[in-house]
Amino acid sequence: xxxxxxxxxxxxxxxxxxxxxxxxxxxxxxxxxxxxxxxxxxxxxxxxxxxxxxxxxxxxxxxxxxxxxxxxxxxxxxxxxxxxxxxxxxxxxxxxxxxxxxxxxxxxxxxxxxxxxxxxxxxxxxxxxxxxxxxxxxxxxxxxxxxxxxxxxxxxxxxxxxxxxxx
Length: 167
Prior knowledge:
Blueprint: E1 5-12, E2 20-28, E3 34-35, E4 41-42, E5 54-56, E6 65-71, E7 77-84, E8 90-98, E9 101-106, E10 126-128, E11 132-133, E12 139-145, E13 149-155, E14 162-166
Antiparallel strand pairs: 1-2, 2-3, 2-5, 3-4, 6-7, 7-8, 8-9, 10-12, 11-12, 12-13, 13-14
C-alpha cells in the first residue's frame, strides 16, 4: 500500500526448522535496491551480519516461525511470528516499527506448547494470517490452533490484542 515490496523472514542454520531464529525485515521499491525500515540502504547480499534487518532477536530452539506481513491503518508493516512465551507456551506475536524501534506485541494467550521442529514438510498445528485492515477500518487477523480452533480476531490497533472473534 506504500509503494514498497516488503520482505519478512526467519534465518535457519540447518535443514531442521528448530534452528529458525531472528525475525528479519527489509523493503525495496524496485526489488534491486533494498533498505531497512528506516530507509537506510542495505548492501547486497543481505546476510545475518547486515545491520538494521533484525526485527526480533529470537534464539534457536524457541518454537519460532513467521515473517508474513500485513499493514495497519497507517500503512505500517506488521510482521507476524509464532514463538514460545516466557512460560514456554506457544504464542502469536505481531511486530510493528514505532518511535524508532520495533515493538513486539504478544497477540494470543494460549495455554499449549507446540514444539516446532523437524525436517521436510512439518505438520502445521498453528496457522496465522497477516493482519488485514477491513473496508470498515477494523484490523483483523485469522488464526488456526489445534486446540483453540480457528477464526478471525478483531484486533485493537494500538495493542494488537484481540478484542473479540468475528465469524
